[in-house]
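Severity: low
Component: inverse-folding endpoint
Summary: output formatting inconsistent between runs
Steps to reproduce: submit the following structure tokens with default settings.
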């Protein structure tokens, strides 16, 4: 049976070459824009492609342009349950921007110093570039990418000027929230901090310190508790903060805040009557707590989109620089009344 008028023929490069009486190499050069080709021949091929709505498949297109049309996304294998929404939202933004540019995203899990999975992806030439979803001090992932020359973008600040970064304005946002708490008369703010090897921890600490300096208040080292990662560590920090007569517990993220809330419940302390609580990162958990917790909300999906677009710009040879995404909200809730 013949092809009906309503059916659309799917053309290959070979079909186009035969139809136009040129070589497949000529068609490939016209599509990729590379190689020597007369203006007339290139125009003839492109006109045929436009008329017949031809789109090269990703593999063929990649071969023609020496690209894979894949981006790698590195996710830490040791994330905790409350971090999952961050990575999901960030991934949604990355994938959205990737699809708009005809790219796919490959996930690589890295735990601790083991980068075997990422090494395999790089050695097998599976990706054109990589997005690192957690920026850490002396990161083995960053070291590997730099060593192999793989283009990449990191989420979070970096002390290495050679690392291209996209980050929320954690320092500015944490400064603003701390300033607001100090302005409400809470002058003994206990800071319950996260892993000091994570770049975001340093940024949030700087914001906390900036607010005290701007308010002309001394920094109180006895009220800063870094590296809280377990319920036991959170319990010890909360107990010591209460002993130091802190009037507010400021938690660096929702995970630490949840651990602190668990300890306050064990002590049967009322929020905000007995102690106030705030978090430098919001979540559904904190929003639905009784009472709801004052927090900072960031647009994580947009952060992912920005990271992906910055990497694509770099791959396209465009001039790139670090980006700070300053869109955030201070959510003032009952926990700091």
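Observed output (run 2 of 3):
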């Amino acid at each position: 049976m013949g092809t009906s008028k309503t059916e659309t023929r799917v053309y290959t490069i070979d079909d186009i070459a035969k139809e136009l009486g040129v070589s497949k190499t000529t068609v490939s050069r016209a599509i990729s824009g590379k190689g020597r080709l007369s203006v007339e021949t290139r125009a003839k091929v492109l006109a045929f492609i436009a008329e017949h709505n031809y789109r090269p498949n990703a593999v063929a297109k990649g071969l023609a342009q020496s690209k894979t049309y894949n981006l790698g996304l590195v996710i830490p294998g040791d994330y905790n349950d409350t971090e999952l929404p961050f990575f999901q939202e960030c991934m949604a933004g990355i994938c959205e921007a990737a699809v708009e540019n005809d790219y796919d995203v490959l996930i690589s899990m890295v735990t601790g110093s083991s980068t075997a999975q990422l090494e395999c992806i790089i050695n097998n030439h599976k990706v054109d570039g990589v997005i690192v979803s957690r920026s850490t001090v002396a990161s083995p992932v960053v070291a590997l990418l730099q060593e192999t020359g793989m283009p990449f973008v990191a989420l979070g600040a970096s002390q290495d000027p050679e690392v291209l970064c996209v980050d929320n304005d954690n320092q500015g946002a944490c400064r603003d929230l701390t300033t607001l708490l100090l302005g409400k008369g809470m002058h003994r703010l206990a800071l319950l901090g996260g892993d000091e090897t994570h770049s975001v921890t340093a940024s949030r600490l700087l914001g906390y310190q900036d607010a005290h300096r701007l308010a002309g208040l001394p920094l109180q080292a006895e009220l800063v508790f870094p590296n809280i990662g377990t319920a036991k560590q959170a319990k010890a920090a909360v107990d010591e903060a209460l002993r130091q007569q802190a009037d507010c517990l400021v938690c660096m993220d929702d995970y630490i805040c949840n651990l602190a809330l668990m300890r306050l419940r064990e002590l049967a302390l009322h929020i905000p009557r007995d102690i106030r609580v705030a978090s430098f990162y919001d979540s559904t958990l904190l929003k639905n707590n009784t009472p709801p917790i004052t927090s900072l909300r960031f647009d994580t999906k947009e952060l992912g989109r920005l990271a992906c677009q910055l990497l694509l710009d770099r791959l396209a040879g465009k001039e790139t620089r670090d980006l700070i995404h300053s869109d955030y909200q201070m959510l003032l809730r009952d926990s700091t009344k």
